[in-house]
Amino acid sequence: MQNVLVIDFGGQYSQLIARRIRELRVFSELVPYDRVMEKIKAKKPSGLVFSGSPSSILSLFSDAKKTPTVDKEILELGIPILGICYGMQLITHLLDGEVTGTANNEYGKTSIDLKLNSPLFNGLAQSEICWMSHKDSVSKLPPAFKVIASTPSLPIAGIENTKKKIYGIQFHPEVIHTPSGMDILKNFLFDICGCSSSWTMVSIIENQVKEIKSKVKDGKVICALSGGVDSTVAAILVHRAVGEKLTCIFVDHGLLRMGEDVQVEKTFRDNFKINFVHIKAKDRFLSKLKGISDPEAKRKIIGTEFIRIFEEEAKKIKNADYLVQGTLYSDVIESGTRDAARIKSHHNVGGLPKDMKLKLIEPLRQLFKDEVRKLGIELGLSEEIVRRQPFPGPGLAIRIIGDVTEERLEILKMADKIVLEEIKRAGLYESIWQSFAILPGIKSVGVMGDERTYSYPIVLRAVSSEDAMTADWVRLPYEVLENLSNRIINEVEGVNRVVYDISSKPPSTIEWE
Ligand code: XMP
Question: Can you list the domains of the chain with their CATH numbers?
Answer without folding.
Answer: 3-192 (3.40.50.880), 201-386 (3.40.50.620), 399-500 (3.30.300.10)
